[in-house]
Amino acid sequence: MKIVGFDLSFKPKRKVNIVIKDHVIRYLELKNNGKEIVVKDCKERYLPDGVIKEGKIQNREKLTFILAECVEEWKIKNREVQFIVPDQIIVIRRVQVPGDLLEDEIQSHLFLELGASIHLPFEEPLFEFKLLPNSEQKNKQDILLIAAPEETVEQYRQLLEDVSLDAVVADISSLSIYRLYYSAMEDVENEHLLLIQYDLSSVNLTIFNEEFPVFSRHIVNEFDEGSWEVSDGKIAWTKNEEDLQAVIEEDIVEMDRVMNFYRFTLTKGKEEITKILIIGDNPYLSDVIGKMKDRFTVPIMSFDEGVFQTDTGEALPREQYLALGLALKEVQTK
């Protein structure tokens, strides 16, 4: 299965993988073992508050300095890099185009229609599309449109170039995680999967059907500066525990709304979510899963600890699952 992404190069060499979030930079590299998934190395570096906010770089100088230190420490200078575009700026949309267009004509059609019949919340988008199963409407073709503001993607690409990395592929987190899920599962046919990425200060909800994302919702959890603190390489909550639990409850209510929206609005009552997959780097993830199981009857799964390992036999930290999914972009696992 081929997953779409923003390809900036056609170079075939094995690449390193970088995930940059508001609070952390993560790196992962696979061994050259053909189809076998073997993690050679992975590292992370937490960022101070305010360097990146909601995916937008706020302090370019400090971020460049920190990333340059990481590149030196991790010994990845001059390597080709795959990176994740921030969830906050991604638009995933199902749109229709004339059914008589050939696949290589759709790109030109989209260029003409963006800003006219197809509206995005930003100008000058970088986008890709994927053909979807035939529309029920005659003379129409359904496509999946994935878009991001070119300016922001270019900012991250230039950041990586400035610290002696060769940014060649940009991908999005939901596709990377689904790629990891797909590689681990024997059968995903006829699923209506709600993929939840539950991170430190945000929640990303993406619904997949027939191996394609059909709906996406990003939730930002606003926390005061200093609410999270790093100690001995671990992240911990520093404020009132009840405040955090209240935020978790609100997030679960929003998950319920998204599932109902998919069932009653998007599919007109014909379909519903059949499975939930949740991952993330929030240290309270187990609590979140427990509360979800109390509320929802839909099967909920998460990757067991140790299901993915490094080449030394150690369990891959769950915080690195997104980077692993990104790495699989250049590995044919099935």
Automatic annotation (TrEMBL):
<dbReference type="Pfam" id="PF11104">
    <property type="entry name" value="PilM_2"/>
</dbReference>
<dbReference type="InterPro" id="IPR005883">
    <property type="entry name" value="PilM"/>
</dbReference>
<protein>
    <recommendedName>
        <fullName>Pilus assembly protein PilM</fullName>
    </recommendedName>
</protein>
